Fold:
Amino acid sequence: MTNIISRRDIDFLLYEFLDVEKLCERDYFSEHDKDIFSPMLDTAEQIANDHFVTCAESGDKNMAELIDGKVEMAEGSKAAMDNLCEAGFIAASLDNEYGGLQLPSTVSNACMSFFQAANVGLCGLPMLTIGVANLINVYGDEEQKTNFLPRLLTGHFYGTMCLSEPHAGSALTDIRTKAEKQDDGNYSISGNKMWITGGEHELNDNIVHLVLAKIPGGPAGVKGISLFIVPRYRLNEDGSIGEDNDVALAGLNHKMGQRITPNCLLNFGENKQCTGYLVGEPHRGLEYMFHMMNEARIAVGLAAACCGYAGYLYSLDYARERTQGRAPDNKDPNNKMIPIIQHSDVKRMLLAQKAYSEGSLALCLYASSLVDDEKTHPDASAREDAHLLLDLLIPVVKAWPSEWCLEANKHAIQILGGYGYTQDYPVERLYRDNRLNMIHEGTNGIHGIDLLGRKVLINDGKGLKLFIAEIDKTIADASNEESLAEYVTSLIESKDIVIKTTEALVAAVAASGSNVFLANSSTYFDMFSNLVIAWLWLKQADVATKSMTNAYEADQSFYHGKIQACQYFFRFDLPKIKTQAELLCSLDTTCLDMPEEAFAC
Amino acid sequence: MTNIISRRDIDFLLYEFLDVEKLCERDYFSEHDKDIFSPMLDTAEQIANDHFVTCAESGDKNMAELIDGKVEMAEGSKAAMDNLCEAGFIAASLDNEYGGLQLPSTVSNACMSFFQAANVGLCGLPMLTIGVANLINVYGDEEQKTNFLPRLLTGHFYGTMCLSEPHAGSALTDIRTKAEKQDDGNYSISGNKMWITGGEHELNDNIVHLVLAKIPGGPAGVKGISLFIVPRYRLNEDGSIGEDNDVALAGLNHKMGQRITPNCLLNFGENKQCTGYLVGEPHRGLEYMFHMMNEARIAVGLAAACCGYAGYLYSLDYARERTQGRAPDNKDPNNKMIPIIQHSDVKRMLLAQKAYSEGSLALCLYASSLVDDEKTHPDASAREDAHLLLDLLIPVVKAWPSEWCLEANKHAIQILGGYGYTQDYPVERLYRDNRLNMIHEGTNGIHGIDLLGRKVLINDGKGLKLFIAEIDKTIADASNEESLAEYVTSLIESKDIVIKTTEALVAAVAASGSNVFLANSSTYFDMFSNLVIAWLWLKQADVATKSMTNAYEADQSFYHGKIQACQYFFRFDLPKIKTQAELLCSLDTTCLDMPEEAFAC
Structure:
């Protein structure tokens, strides 16, 4: 099997770092235990290797294309998706009632990591289908659930999210798609939707589009947006596939990466024959969508983490095999060349990849455990806390992996040198695939604004306080380990910096207004994320240190690697927090003040 | 015309920043003046627009392929190259004697910047041809010069550099290609060479390969490497094209970017019929090659700078046109959407691109002016100083633009959002094209080792002293401008940090050996480069400030932009120098100590 994600690391994160078995004490998960989780993980790894890895390269070279009026995907795509669905990975985290397996999100996302690492482009389909199923499960009416949920969960239908329009990407306020009420109570949908992953294909029976649209006469802006289920084919009374619902493919986007799955421009209702079914109440569409968005954003963070992880492991294997040059203190050309993993600068690029990709995976699975907590924690206030903490962290979960695991992929190419720049090795594809993750589900810039402008402020900063309390717990635990003292001290110092900087910025809103407050939100994001990732690394290093003593030799190496990656992050990355905080506290207006006409003549 | 490089900026750099007209006072350049430079620049911009921009996209989509036994390049490639050659841009900086125009390198590289920005992949051909012509001009014998130089300068022959082999990329010590002396005094060449840009094509009459090979019985390692001219077709006595010289195309590399020009694996002497002509003396090949390498490395830095620059200007235009969202303090959806250039975070991404790409262009043209000085300065010690300073800076010139203008290209994609990720816009191609520049002409990691391990040490650190003296000049000049006081102070502080860190590291060699000394050479590179780029930005801001008072309105905006970009670099990037220095002074061994087996299990 190709080593795309370290199974040892997955087990470490699930059972040692997050103690996922404890979830089985809760009613909702009471039918599960490690004996169920482990075979699920085995199956995911196996299917990922047998079916997802195998069509990743061909899917990149033969991107989805319109052939004889049908969108054709690369050979193997259908078999891969069928296997994933049949093994229950769409249904994994959904309620039993409509066919779900009621697995913890933490575990289902750990399973998903193998598919993401194997073929991130194809994973757009399950990601969106799970999201659509989740949303219908929570907000749909009984008829909608009965009609769509079971077939989404078995993969007979796939889902899409139709938010953006050609002129409105980040700013949904300005969407123009219309939903006009008909005599039968349903709506006639008309408008153009852009960037629709899986918007048309022939892999299965039907496609369920979730469409944001405005009902004429509603409030202006986001408060007038409603949400509709718009199937590609209508359903007959008996639930069988009925006639075409007037959703037309207007074009395919030819992307830099993630090319295996079609990305579409769709025209709804060109012939005024497109029926949409309102979800919940009118004008509350964005609220529903955003409620489910946290999980979609974890999926994007996870996708980025897994692209980074797959590149890390590939370049690691390469570095162990490829010989080149000699050590600085032993350059005699009569000596043998050494494997490049022995060069310190190659180790640097491997350690950076390890710190970023394993750190990102830890972040995404931790966030998934918050999803489990907000849904199933026996204590109501703990559920609310988990929700608040997740809300605070979600910009980091989505955006940090997409930035730094892209950097990891850059390093993977560099380790392979010229070979890494060719299509004969997967690392350049991973780099291209991963570049999308900074853009979709909210650009990283938007997440910076969301973090500083909304998330740290809600409930008088309660999310931030909860986060600090989590850090303090880790500090208390790690303080018992003398070998971690350096990191404990750094984390305390960094935490204080972030708190003080946040206070300084919040105080500035009153004095200087929101434009100045938000002018450097990306730098705030960088500073805040540094703290989050450092915390997760200390937490991992603490678990590793405590487990080291009684571990077998191979496990000792594994734990040693965790501790060294923690050291790398604390020494090479975390210190940036100081200069970032200085810039923020100065309320710098370099960017804000730049006159448009001064950019270039 | 497409705005790919700001002509105003080129004029600023040449005439205001580097005062290139002063060079015309030297004998070597006495036939030139601004009235010759400016039309050359006009012509370059025109040809770049008419012929290089136009085949950039098609050359990317239809990469060089073997068709019926011949390597075919995209339509338009030949016309583009013919135009470039006929207008004299290969001959530009070479001596009159063999048909050169004897232009300053500073000016010829400024001309080249338009071609690089328009179509960096195709520019591999002129870059290498200029390099080969330069080398033959300096080290070739009369017969070699007569046979090859005039036809290289007119573009009837193109050149290649054949250094790497499949098993030996960075470590030329270990090349295996053999050169066996024949009775006629020439050599029989046999071996495989990898990554040969322009290694085979049908654009013109002949290809002149410069090949590194070992003469059996010579010293081991790099001291046994000799340099040979190996034409694709031999020349008859009368100079006409003769028979095939047994250089066989063994394969084409399919790259992530720079796809228009073929990149080849070549087999030399499969039939023992490959003749090579020794350049200079045996066993001195690497020395010759490295003597010319500085100019090749400026070309790579320039290529990276221009990819960054083209992406910057494209995303700038886009940001001015595209409307989306509203300002944080004015979010009423009934108001009009604003052009995204008005969002502070978009300005940040534009300013970063401006700081990196204009900073890189300034760096490359400054380095070119050192080439002019080492060759033509009337004072012998000034020539030597220029040579030393260039030697010191060349790792930065090659590697910094390739890292940070790639980052610029990442920002350009981000500004275009989903659109930037599609092949309908050039920014994703620029990102892919630019990724090569971190790898070829020495990987960036190797340049970090070269900088710290060799360049700062040669002649007892004289190069470093010369560099510090240049910084001090700029500090003295800028100290007269009150508005620059902040940057003057920062630059003094940063300079002192770099000096002290360098001293601490050099002292450590004795104590801890070269492995520890070089363990964090990439971080040393980052720190040192930060100082170089900050210095060049202050130098630009100083010129801009001094010219501001009497400038027209449009020029005032231009100068304002330079000063704001300086501010951006000093506030957002330069401060990193402090944490980089701390890590270096601690002689950190995180990377060095990482055991191989601890990376992943």
Notes: Chain A has a mean pLDDT of 96. The first strand of chain A starts at residue 65 and ends at 67.
